[in-house]
């Protein structure tokens, strides 16, 4: 297993508990992820049920992950690991077209509910405008990525996952048909690549072109003023015009994320636009104090849909390019990898 982001930790844990012997490589193991990684920067929104399509691979992976995250959280909790999860997601519609799409989704899925006009009026002083309507998904929610990765790492280690704080420099096929990891030790029947943007560079010398490009995201943690904390009682995280507002403990809120294509350094003007919600920040948000800002890179496949889940050669699996939904899709990715290995 190459790469210990949320995808790598999920795959390693799931394979080890399914009876396989896993070695996990990442130079950042035992320390914080580097600036090129995505998982520790993610807000952790799990948007499975509000997905606009009702068929196809993306839909299936989301529904599978939705069910698996619930099982995984329970299983890990029984072993003493707390995975903070805040249920509920409220998507606001800023245009008539979005409102119409929300009405259609609410008709198709019984667990989704449109806000009634009185509810919207009650929320109106607190939410950014325009907000023409809202779709509430009680089953979606937000999972803290960092404690989730810690739980998967610790429980994985208990189960026997071998952790190697080493950068993999290349992959070679040995005479016996196994894979040798350059920079690591030993040979393996299967290699799974979940090294984010670096996956592409590791594949190139093997003749596999799977280009990905960085899409940078910046986010903020804000402290709400005393008396301004009503938004924390929202029925979950709020999504408005592609920006997420995530209520946090201790009167705090996460705000994110920017979408900066082909950037590796966050642009100050993008952060300002996020902070001000493009000029629509309600008064309580303007009064909040910035406690922390951070950034991360999302790996987006070029010319192929996200994520990249492929067996490229016997024993070589690519599980990367999750772009904006790696936290959500990590369990379904792990299940896909296990299926490939078990089918030989
Ligand atoms: C600001 C922001 C907000 C986001 N919000 C959400 C959200 O709300 N919901 C959601 O589902 N997703 C969200 N995402 C997307 C999500 O973070 C990514 O899709 C996900 O983190 C991808 O996980 P990963 O494990 O594939 O990659 P990464 O987390 O990038 O991990 C890749 C790992 O590979 C390691 N590596 C690199 N090269 C090598 C090598 N040569 N050898 C060994 N290891 C190597 C790196 O050190 C790194 O730890 C967000 C992303 C950002 C940036």
Low-confidence stretches: none
Number of helices: 9
Number of strands: 18
User: Overall mean pLDDT score?
Assistant: 96
Structural class based on helices, strands and sheet pairing: alpha+beta
C-alpha geometry = globular
Annotated CATH architecture of one domain = 3-Layer(bba) Sandwich
N-to-C SSE series?
HEEHEHEHEHEEEEEHEEEEEHHEEEH
- The CATH topology annotation of one domain reads as FAD/NAD(P)-binding domain
How much helicity do the residues have?
25-40%
Largest sheet: 10 strands, mixed
The CATH class designation of one domain is Alpha Beta
Instruction: Give me the Rg, rounded.
Output: 21 Å
Keywords:
FAD/NAD(P)-binding domain, binds flavin-adenine dinucleotide, alpha+beta, 344 residues, 10-stranded mixed sheet, 9 helices, globular, 3-stranded antiparallel sheet, 18 strands
